[in-house]
Amino acid sequence: MLELMPNTLGYPLLSLLIFIPIAGAIVLLAVRNAAAARWIALVVSLVEIGLCIPLLANFNSGTANMQFGESMSWISDWNINYRIGVDGISILFVALTTLLTTISIMVSWTAVQDRVREFMVAMLFLESAMIGVFAALDLFLFYIFWEAMLIPMYLLIGVWGGPNRLYAAVKFFLYTLVGSVLMLVAILAVYFTAGGTFDVLALMNYKFGHDFQLWAFAAFFAAFAVKVPMFPFHTWLPDAHVEAPTAGSIILAGILIKMGAYGFLRFSLPFFPDATIFFTPAIMILSVVAIIYGAYMAFAQTDFKKLIAYSSVSHMGFVTLGIFALNSQGLEGGLLQMINHGVSTGALFLAVGVIYERTHTRLLADYGGIAAKVPVYATFLMIITLSSIGLPGTNGFIGEFTIILGAFKHKVIYAVIASLGIILGAGYMLWLYQRVAFGKVTNPHNEHLSDMNLREVVAALPLVILVFAIGLYPNAAFQVMHASTEHLIQHMQAKAQTLPAVAQAVGALTGH
Predict the structure, then answer these.
(1) How far apart are CA 425 and CA 292, in angstroms?
(2) 235-293: per-residue pLDDT in tens?
(3) What are phi and psi of 60, to 5 degrees?
(4) Which domain holds residue 305?
(5) How many Å apart are CA 70 and CA 97, to the nearest integer?
(6) Per-residue confidence band for 507, with pLDDT thresholds at 50, 70 and 90
(7) In a domain, 156, yes or no
(8) N or C: which end of the chain has fewer CB within 10 A?
(9) Is 53 a member of any domain?
């Protein structure tokens, strides 16, 4: 049974991570100067990164228990508590959130000229809500943070987006809201069925009936599948990415779409193991369809951003394939690939933003031969391209390799189809790079492009470092998550004993 280990640091580290961005946003409301607003937001985001240092340094990777725990009564009549903590599944996402928020603020330094203060307020509120989602250990609190993310992201797309920003923002909001409403119904059903508790750790150990699990899993699935987004619930994503500002695309690809997969790991699998086994074949099929479909659609794109958006559909198919392989290799590979995708795809959207600021076009036909004009940019784009296709030595390789291994142990056919997706991914990404960087300069406007400046290099450098750090020494990440993923597998096996047939299936899938 998992426990919430008390915070022994002497200060509420997780609460500081959650509420300092809100405090910064409140301060910004009194600021009128755009330059001051940028600097205040950047300083707040850097403070958040600084707070992640003791978080990672004091994390005990040898236990699956929740660490840095904080708990206090909030709405006592309904048994709602402010309960937060992190484990090996969530801690890496907290750190990645703080990093990508800082990078997003830096790349927006000159790209956002209108309503700068309001833009930075939205960014800081979004950071607070995202960290809250990963730290919440009360279902009601989790839902509050989950819904709170929608508002600033809706504003980022709808106010600072492209020509069709209102259509994309409304589509994003409606898709996610419908899924969230269904999840709220399931949360309330879980609350009353389990005797009136929203405590995530207590609910993990409650044995729900088989029929209840089936429909509750389906309701949670509606919210998480839209957020991932899984095929065929993905159609909001390309529009949102194309119309969002660069910062919005980085956060959307790097963090927000990971929350659907995180929800599967944190709630669906441990709460509803019987239903997980029941729905696994369908989800595995949807995952491999997404891998091939996303890659196929990426080949057809002429817009730089839209190509990357469809590549995200394909890459997130790998993530759900790994998670629902339900073995240690698949789970850890899927979890690592969520981090990898945040790094590589966040960097790709950064690259789009950098070149768009100079050319004011995202059409691939308007590029060509720019490597000779902007060699630093071309080098950065090449590194991230190789990361995205999973070249050995980069972060993408080890994530995809372990997912394929987990899928192979689950069912060979899924691993074979996913392997085809890797080949297709290499094809469209190398084709993308060839069209953008190589050949002759076909557009005269590109003859005098300026290369990446110091601010842009500083923003991109941490992502480049992570590409090689994870690729060359993935064990650092695996050590953090291993105890939690192993406990999740064992926990599912133990809870599924309520149905012998399901228990046998879990044993076959996990190798126990």
Answers:
(1) 9
(2) 888 888 888 899 999 998 889 888 989 999 999 999 999 999 999 999 999 999 999 99
(3) -95, 105
(4) 272-482
(5) 20
(6) very low
(7) no
(8) N
(9) no
Task: Name residue 474's amino acid.
Answer: P
* DSSP conformation letters of 154-189: HHHHHHHS-TTHHHHHHHHHHHHHHHHHHHHHHHHH
Residue 505 has pLDDT above 60, yes or no: no
DSSP assignment letter at 7: P
Structure tokens at 193: 């069925």
Integer Cα distance of 363 and 301 in angstroms? 9
Amino acid at 372: A
Question: Looking at this protein, which amino acid is placed at residue 27?
Answer: V
Rounded to whole angstroms, the Cα distance separating 464 from 446 reads 25
Give the three-state DSSP class for 66. Answer: strand
Provide the domain count of the chain: 1
Q: Look at residue 199 and tell me if it is in a domain.
A: no
Mean pLDDT of the chain: 89
pLDDT of residue 191: 93
CB 323, CB 261: distance < 8 Å: yes
Of 455, 432, 336, residue with least CA distance to 384:
432
Q: What is the DSSP letter of 83?
A: E
pLDDT at 468: 94
How far is Cα 238 from Cα 306, in angstroms, rounded to an integer?
6
Task: Return the amino acid letter for 52.
Answer: C
| φ/ψ (deg, to 5) at 80 | -100, 130
Token pair listed for 272: 């509803």
Residue among 228, 224, 233, 429 nearest 344 (CA)? 429
Residue 473 lies in a domain: yes
Closest by CA to 153, choosing from 173, 139, 133, is 173
pLDDT in tens, 391-448: 999 998 998 999 999 999 888 999 999 999 999 999 999 999 998 888 788 778 878 8
- pLDDT above 70 covers a percentage of the chain that reads 97
Distance of CA 243 to the CA centre of its chain: 19
Q: How far is CA 295 from CA 14, 42, 298, 314, 475, in A?
A: 38, 36, 5, 6, 29
